[in-house]
Amino acid sequence: MRIVVLAGGIGGARFLRGLKRAVPDADVTVIGNTGDDIHLFGLKVCPDLDTVMYTLGGGIDEEQGWGRSDETFHLKEELAAYGVGPDWFGLGDRDFATHIVRTQMLGAGFPLSAVTEALCDRWQPGVRLIPMTDDRVETHVAVELDGERKAVHFQEYWVRLRASVPAQAVVPVGAEQAKPAPGVLEAIGEADVILFPPSNPVVSVGTILAVPGIREAIADAGVPVVGLSPIVGDAPVRGMADKVLAAVGVESTAAAVAEHYGSGLLDGWLVDTVDAAAVERVEEAGIRCRAVPLMMTDVDAAAGMAREALALAEEVRTA
Amino acid sequence: MRIVVLAGGIGGARFLRGLKRAVPDADVTVIGNTGDDIHLFGLKVCPDLDTVMYTLGGGIDEEQGWGRSDETFHLKEELAAYGVGPDWFGLGDRDFATHIVRTQMLGAGFPLSAVTEALCDRWQPGVRLIPMTDDRVETHVAVELDGERKAVHFQEYWVRLRASVPAQAVVPVGAEQAKPAPGVLEAIGEADVILFPPSNPVVSVGTILAVPGIREAIADAGVPVVGLSPIVGDAPVRGMADKVLAAVGVESTAAAVAEHYGSGLLDGWLVDTVDAAAVERVEEAGIRCRAVPLMMTDVDAAAGMAREALALAEEVRTA
């Protein structure tokens, strides 16, 4: 079975680990969000790609869900001692190595997709991880700060400001000119099922879908497209999805996110059991819907969710 | 008193610490060797400048004489796990910060001298540290490896090969086109005394002297120029100076090194007490010479050596 998954960071990575446990022999291609990428200290940092790679490769800090296990922060301390910022982005000593290797390879002329493949050579995530694009896309968030409207990098909004001010708009700068990375459209075209994990629908899955060609390829693939709600009981399972949903005029409910994707893209949608009442509304929108437990408390729970998603995909296929 | 010191790495740095203790109120300008500089992992590393800066700024690993105190090597371990080399150069997590800040500033267009000043803002070494040049000079060593003659970077010869094969030639590549960094010639011109610490006469002091204009400025300064022998009892006090002395046809003795500098440059020379017999030969070469203890066992010993060097300079001045 060939499965394509559009993944953001922590939620996507943890779902993928469940999927690998549920169907260890499946051929999984992950299309990773790169809108969160940021240049820090002259280095190219790809938080979402790395979270997927570290999580599936066994190098993740389990507790926080991002960054490396057994990590130290001496380099960061020293940068602060030099007065060189930003100091709000948590780069650890081990993590720095990934960004240094990536930056060197990019500098040598390799596209990000080739660099990601090289990094995965070490981590052996058990999936094929492809960035959504080799081109530069940077998610900016329009906010009002000190009475002034300005656009900040997504990481500045998310990590530095902790989404403490309303997002007025979310713009994947450069997306319109971006091309899907080599292998992205091919993987979608050859997929038996396409999954949207409980990743952020705006700044993770939404950014991937903003790369021209990807949304269309998924809609035209002719295979079941099934998503899992990142909203449980009107609140994000983790992260601050509600903050950016408001910016695109979508209410923070499991049903509204499904409608936001739309029946032209989505065939099936899983909501949590606490949102069972949303099933009817989602199905009225033309999207097959089931209510199942959606809390990824551990790998087994994530595997259970993956099985439910694949079961719903099968239901769609045979309907 | 204005003192100019031409410094390499460990020997120069330790001597400077002694000099600061001996004459705390002196105005000391250090012209640092940059021929050892190397690009590693896309970062500009300046081992000699950093050794001086860390040693005088209180950040040095006292035992090994280079690198940072309280250091960890997690980033380096990870680079090795990615299969990215070289693995023979000991960059620690804290040390990496210096190279990242430097590389960013160079990338932003600042010359190395301005970058060094900025780094010293943090370390407050108590001296003015200026790289010999803002231009790229790279010391290469010609060796025979596996029956083939090739040129390797100085660090490869020194650190990777541990100077285990004979150096057939030592070439400061780029030196001929290099210009002294801003402030170098001015400092020499305004100096009351110029000192050559017990640094390597070929790859440290020799490289600095290879930048056109520096040797001439020192010779024409009209102030005492006093050096300290890095060779004690026919062997280098530390390091492998003998290996590179052979390449320039100089025997590994305190007297031969003085003659190598020559009376056109050097006015005074200190040899260790075990080399007292060399005094006569050095003085015959037209260089005033004294035999004093030259082992920098601690800061007090280094301070004693500095006092002896300044006393000899005073002797030269009043002679």
UniProtKB/TrEMBL annotation, chains A, B:
Record's catalysed reaction(s): enolpyruvoyl-2-diphospho-5'-guanosine + 7,8-didemethyl-8-hydroxy-5-deazariboflavin = dehydro coenzyme F420-0 + GMP + H(+)
GO MF entry, a single one: LPPG:FO 2-phospho-L-lactate transferase activity
Keywords: Magnesium, Transferase
InterPro entries in the cross-refs: CofD (IPR002882), CofD-like_dom_sf (IPR038136), FbiA/CofD (IPR010115)
A Pfam family reported for this protein in Swiss-Prot or TrEMBL: CofD
Functional pathway: Cofactor biosynthesis; coenzyme F420 biosynthesis
Enzyme Commission number: 2.7.8.28
Cofactor(s) in the UniProt record: Mg(2+)
Binding site residues for 7,8-didemethyl-8-hydroxy-5-deazariboflavin: 50
Assembly with partners or alone: Homodimer.
Family in the record: Belongs to the CofD family.
Protein's job: Catalyzes the transfer of the phosphoenolpyruvate moiety from enoylpyruvoyl-2-diphospho-5'-guanosine (EPPG) to 7,8-didemethyl-8-hydroxy-5-deazariboflavin (FO) with the formation of dehydro coenzyme F420-0 and GMP.
The protein, known as: Phosphoenolpyruvate transferase
